[in-house]
Amino acid sequence: MDHFLYRNGQLMAEDVPVTEIAASVGTPCYIYSTATLLRHFQLFEEALQGTDHLVCFAVKSLSNVAVLKVLGDAGAGMDVVSIGEYKRARAAGVAGERIVFSGIGKTRAEMREALEGGIRQFNVESEPEMQALSEVAVSLGKVAPITVRVNPDVDAKTHAKISTGKKEDKFGIPISRAREVYALAASLPGLKVVGIDVHIGSQLTDLEPFRQAYRKVAELTGVLRAEGHEISRLDLGGGLGIPYARDNNAPPLPIEYGAMVREEVGHLGCEIEIEPGRLISGNSGILVSEVIYVKSGEEREFLIVDAAMNDLVRPAMYDAWHDIVPVVEPAAGAEAQAYDVVGPICESGDTFAKARPLPQLAPGALVAFRSAGAYAAVMASEYNSRPLVPEVLVQGHQFAVIRRRPTFDEMINRDTIPEWL
Ligand code: LLP
User: Where is the Orn/DAP/Arg decarboxylase 2 C-terminal domain (predicted)?
Assistant: First the structure.
């Protein structure tokens, strides 16, 4: 359920016609719905109601500071994977004590800044990282709260590029080695073990892999407690999938996920953290684009739009499906035409959809790519010297540009010509 619906023949973003936003900021543009962001955050809150918990939004999925403020003000914590994301969360008014720091390559400089600014915990992913964090904490006279991310070796049954919990993946430490790694943690100065962390992948459409992973974490909790470690917090990661196409099997709901979490770890008396990104931000955004040309190939009709793979890379990178809908609602019974929807970039990979049935569209028509809130604007680049797409936030009847489109001068002036040229 999201707040991008047709009303009077027009696609609306909450109570604002998408055409009005496109006319005001130009295309392509990203539009986010505050109500949809909050609704999906609340679904997790409801799913974990009655447990001691913190829902930490995965900032990597959508990191605009205005979006982070919407969620932070609603009570979300944040999961960050770089000091840049940490700074964004802080700029959105989120206290350091509500921010968890994940990622396999945290640098000493990043550790230092997070420790000085305040941090809820570091999710440590390796022994060398643990050693480095210990040294940094000691040098600052601080104690770093940590969990260790364990790799439970379960198959998340998702796209290979976004699976993270199998033993061949680069993440976490093998769960079989957890005891020795926790023993090391306990022996190092400047560290305080607070719990265990696990994250097995993204866009999971089945609860079973989560269940297997959480069961292993529950077992490990007992083992580590018996060895004298204080395990009071379990970070269960993110990864719950969303429906990208309206007609496919819907992934499990947060309420079902929450029930499973309680079954598997509810008896342990631990504080529960989760790190959802996509489920909160994914269906909260659309990418609006204008048709530039309709080109008839020998066998195919190409809809050439002004958005491209640099703006939304998911189809090119993961063969991802995004629903594409016209901004003006097609008349009932309008004939469909199969289009290859492509961007202007000089690569065949710049294809959003092949033979996609759409109503007949003419140059100047607007289309919206749905489910474009997560891993969309954040993964954009300026390839082909295309400016980053502006972002707009809607709340009820109002909308605001929350990141403007850079000018070409701004883009070009970031480059400098050395004096010897
Ligand atoms: N926690 C950790 C440690 C993660 O690595 C991730 C995502 C999350 C939480 C949030 O997962 P989510 O709830 O959003 O599934 N670019 C890819 C997705 C990459 C996910 C990376 N890690 C895509 O567009 O599908």
Answer: 30-373
